[in-house]
Amino acid sequence: MGAAITVRVIRAPRARAATPPATDLPRSRPRAFTEWQALRRWGKLPASELDVVGYLMRALREEAALSQKALARRLRVSQQAVQQAERWSANPTVELLRAWAAACGGEVEINLRAGPATV
User: Is 61 among the domain residues?
Assistant: First the structure.
């Protein structure tokens, strides 16, 4: 009489269907500038991140090949003021935006559109 043989069958878990990531969820923390810049270049930024003013200001300064210090001299502010204006959470005045754009050889265009009325 032979010994009983026990066979154990191990099955791999079934692969789940990949769900596409939600593209327009609000972020809990700011995206790094280099990541934002790459996604913008590739056309992959969510709509809520297209108009991050501080990053747009930094992109304009870099396109003009200016350092923060050189731009600060043109604007007659400190380098730290330029650094703060280039943050994700920056909230610059229209006056600063115009001066910044002029110093970088750009221009400011602001469009306000009426949307659906909400109560």
Answer: yes
